[in-house]
Design brief:
Largest sheet: 2 strands, antiparallel
Radius of gyration: 27 Å
Helix content: 40-55%
Strand order of the largest sheet: 1-2
Strand content: 5-15%
Number of helices: 5
Structural class: mainly alpha
Length: 128
């Protein structure tokens, strides 16, 4: 009996595995992106950018600070009133928002943030 060539429209076993593997990779990729997006703290980033009203910016930033065990009893309003006189520049002495003296540094490797402070000794620096 003579072997006839297989028609081109019939998929091979390799072709079926490749298509199944390709779609599974897409599904896992999409789920991974969705999880990464859900883990991002968008409100915190927006608060430090000043995209909310002043009260909400301070509330979100204070809430983030209170997640740390050292600052669990932290009161943002009292902190601003106590710290303002330590600065000489009017921008900082008249500050009413946390983000005036504090900023975020993103740690992409661990998907986390480091809150940094512009100290009174050198408030123009972002290396504090």
């Amino acid at each position: 009996m003579k072997h006839l060539p297989r028609p081109l429209s019939t998929p091979t076993v390799w072709g079926q595995r490749w298509k199944r593997g390709f779609s599974v990779r897409w599904i896992f990729g999409f789920v991974g992106l969705a999880v990464a997006a859900a883990c991002a703290n968008v409100d915190l980033e927006n608060a430090f950018k000043g995209e909310f009203p002043e009260a909400k910016n301070n509330s979100v930033i204070s809430g983030y600070c209170q997640t740390c065990h050292i600052h669990k009893d932290f009161d943002g309003e009292d902190h601003i009133a106590i710290v303002r006189p330590r600065y000489r520049r009017p921008v900082f002495r008249n500050a009413s928002e946390c983000r005036t003296c504090h900023y975020l540094k993103k740690d992409w490797l661990h998907n986390d943030y480091q809150r940094k402070t512009r100290l009174p000794a050198n408030p123009n620096s972002k290396k504090n």
